[in-house]
Amino acid sequence: MKNLLTALFLILSVAFGYTQRSIINFNNNWKFILEDNASFSKENVDDTPWKTLNVPHDWSFEKGVRKGGDQGQGGGYHDGGIGWYRKYFDLEKESLSKITYINFDGVYMNSEVWVNGNYIAKRPYGYISFRYDISKHLKEGKNTIAVRVDNSLEPSARWYHPCGIYAPVKLIEVNTTHFKPNSIFIKTPSITENKAIVSIGAEINGSLKKLKYEVKLFSPEGKELTSKCEKLAVANPAYQLEVENPKLWSPKTPNVYRAVTQILDGKRVIDEVETTFGFKTVEWKTETGFWLNGENVKLKGVCEHWEGGPLGGAWTKPMLRWKLQSLKDMGINAIRPSHNPTPPMFYDICDEIGLLVMDEIFDGWHKKAPQDYGKQAFDEWWQRDVKEWITRDRNHPSIFVWSLGNETHSDVAPEMVEFGKNLDPTRLFTSGAGNPEDMDIQGVNGGSETKSFIEGKTLEKPFISTEAPHTWQTRGYYRTQTWWRDNELPGTYELPNLTEKEIFFYEGINPKNWRNRKQRFNSSYDNATVRVSARKYWEVMRDTPWHSGHFRWTGFDYYGEAGLVHGGLPFNLFMGGALDVAGFKKDLFYFYKSQWTQEPMIHMLPHWAHPRMKEGTVIPVWVYSNADEVELFLNGKSLGKDKPGTVWNQMQCEWMVPYKEGKLEAIAYIDGKEVKRTLFNTSEQPSKLKTSVQKLEAEDSFEASYIITSESLDENNNLYPYGENKIYYNIQGDVTKVSMENGNPIDPTSRTKSDFRALFFGKTRLFLRAQPNAKQASIITGAILGDKALYLSNEITIDTEVISVLGTTSTSNLEVFYTTNGDNPEVNGQPYSKPFSISDGTTVKAVVKQNGKVVLAMEETFGKNEGLFWGDEHSADMWIGRGVNISAEDGILEGTAKPSREARRFKGTGFVDFKGGEGAITWYQENDGEGGDYSIRFRYMHNNEGKMHPMKLYVNDEYIRTLEFKPTGGWEKEWKFVPTIITLKSGANNIKLETTGTSGPYIDELFID
């Protein structure tokens, strides 16, 4: 009888909807095609030829860099396009009496959804989560969901953006009576040392009859603290509860509490939602800045694009945790997701590890990129997107301020602030240099870097530096001469050269082949910048009471904005990070670590292998440390001690050391006792490959990820700091390649399709993602190693290894065959047994066989013209004193305007020819300082006697004047300039030349002097 009653109860529970919500991982087994066809929305389509994949997915990153890529320089020359996703899922009959939501955490952009052939809706913004009630379109058995993603209008952002379903997807099944999505709002109106008040509100859909609302609070350790349960009388119930001795949330103590809210029918749970929250107090004071939990705190933050790092936009939670923890390890306490919200898992991790979040919703409130959200959808959609953003994120203890925009201005700002405060009255609002007069807190971007701003500022409200400092470093690259992005600007802090003349002369590209003066790598001595060094700006914010802190640009390097600092192709990424896109730490990382962390650390730069440097050349040797003092030794001889200082140019310990090969060692002391040491040995040519495996544990709906790091060593196991040989990978087992990345901004090799990636200054990485239910995986690595230029030695080594990634891997013998005469090594190769010598210009080919089958086919060319360019003090003289020049062919071209090379003496890769018709050229220029007047020149040529070829000049879509282009005397090589003055605003600027009535001349470049 008892069993019969139990069975009857279960039947009635199902019949009357008495089961809790279910959340189903919807990430796996999607079908994808990069095409567009209206029939793809139908319930039944032959999609067997489509690719099967797991989301998160980013087809733009997967396709890779392409000259002329749709996203332009801002997007790192990646493409857009239109893609379709389809997925099948089964439902039981009882599910049809429920409410079912499909929840997307992020789809970029203009997504449209169909269920069983029925159109559901469209969501334009690519950086917002959304969900649809699809209940009425479902059926018992097999169901189909189709998603169209439209990135046909490009560029749609000013930096690289993903394409596709780049964030998690869930299917959420609830009873007809349930909590509305994002409706639970937890506030802590009163917090004292002994007691805190917790206010919890919710909104409920469906019938409330005979139901109860219960709330339980749990401590960070999981202990139930208090609860409250009452009958439901209204659809928006609100409770207040007390918590004794609340543990405060802060970056140092990220204490996260849990609230479990339930709708009950008797003791049966109709719906349940778990929400995390924390206790903290925030104050902003004009005179003293930011206060957290009663303590005056400096915000030591970074800006971070969602696409910063090695995956494009398709981050899994294990990889995202690795990224955020890497930044936390540097000592940051805050982060600004720039310039858009991120998927919810980002905030969950920030809650857990302790990062304050300046949560930002938009870049612009109008068009900034040619086809961005500001142009396509802002006016119609901003309220819906702001509501989703704030109601979704407002319970996160990590979020301490809302940011509504970036480098933008509009009359809509006051309305946005009011709208936002109605959704969350507990936090203040700011922006990154947008309508500061309408914000609670004044945010300033690059303009806050200037000496005149800091020393002459009178504040009327609290201030935060939302985007500063702007400095650049290329990992492993050094220069002793200061480099200013736009030449030295007025109002800058001093940044003197480190030596009278430059002592380092290697480059990624021969300066004769640079497209403009920006096409160099950037020095890791903290002396490549717009207007301030990282060291000086930390001193400024630390010692200025009203300065709340900064968000440096950026944490990680990121893809895109390749023309802004680095001059465009072959550069395809931005090097402003403290870590490169592979996640390798730059010297800058260790500077911040020395200032912002307490555990004893030491880091020395530069490396101590300079094979082309004359012995005795004096090298600035720096050591970053948080110890009391550091002692430096060269070949066992002490060069003296130095103490890290508090003044900006004394924050590093420094010695001027005449170069001599050998061992350079630094020892850090606290209270006279050694706490840390580091050393460099001068290395010979690379002859070994060191490979290590880091596992990132699975969590939530995501499988584990793996980071495979390869480094070039010499025969004595010293890192060879100029290593640039290709590392080949053969992947076996239950893992999928995500990307290969080395941090090199000019490497054209596909990050996703190739089977190799070259070392960049001695290091490279492979990123893998475990497949569902993975059991076993391994990789085979191989490399043809040696000095690319054969300067150190002409001896070549081939190194191979089988490496276990997951599970057990049986050892297997590898065979290597190679040739040096161009022959196919599989057919005519000789077995490799020991290093061999080659001559200048030799291409070594090799195959690696496993059990008789070729698993790697490798090739490497060596010679004096291979690899890095090695020059002298005069190599880059031609670029001294030149302003910013932007190639016309890299602009956005309209009408008949086309790139051409059918002339002579043009700069860069070509020029623009209007082909006898009409059109326009639009250039993009970033101004990181205050707005003001700038001299510009257009380099042009034509030989139409008596014709002036008038062209209209627009700046930021406003007509400025009509320019006339007089004949230059030829159509072949006679280039001249038309000068004028324009006003550039702070931040992003568009400069446009448009024909008017007649065709235009050849246009070569825009110069900003």
Detailed description of the structure:
- There is one protein chain.
- The protein contains eleven helices and 69 strands.
- With 1009 residues, the chain is mainly beta.
- The protein has six domains: 21-164, Sandwich (Jelly Rolls); 185-277, Immunoglobulin-like; 282-596, Alpha-Beta Barrel (TIM Barrel), CATH 3.20.20.80; 613-681, Immunoglobulin-like (Sandwich), CATH 2.60.40.10; 688-865, Immunoglobulins (Immunoglobulin-like), CATH 2.60.40.10; 886-1008, Galactose-binding domain-like (Jelly Rolls, Sandwich).
- Helix 3 crosses helix 4 (344-353).
- The model is unreliable at 1-18 (pLDDT under 50).
CATH architecture of the largest domain: Alpha-Beta Barrel
Terminus-to-terminus distance? 92 Å
Count of DSSP-assigned helices: 11
Q: Structural class from helices and strands?
A: mainly beta
Radius of gyration: 30 Å
Unreliable segments (pLDDT under 50, ≥5 consecutive)?
A: 1-18
Name the helicity range.
Answer: 10-25%
Strand order of the largest sheet: 29-28-27-26-25-35-31-30
Can you tell me the CATH topology of the largest domain? Answer: TIM Barrel
The CATH superfamily of the largest domain bears the name Glycosidases
Tally of DSSP β-strands: 69
Overall tally of structural domains: 6
Q: How would you sum up the global shape?
A: globular
Q: What is the residue-mean pLDDT, rounded to a whole number?
A: 95
Which strand-content bin applies to the residues? 35-45%
Main sheet attributes: strand count, strand direction, barrel closure? 8 strands, parallel
Look at the structure and give the CATH class of the largest domain. Alpha Beta
InterPro entries: Beta-gal/glucu_dom_sf, CBM6, DUF4982, Galactose-bd-like_sf, GH, GH29D-like_dom, GH2_Domain-Containing, Glyco_hydro_2
GO biological process, one term: carbohydrate metabolic process
Domain CBM6: 884-1009
Organism: Hyunsoonleella flava
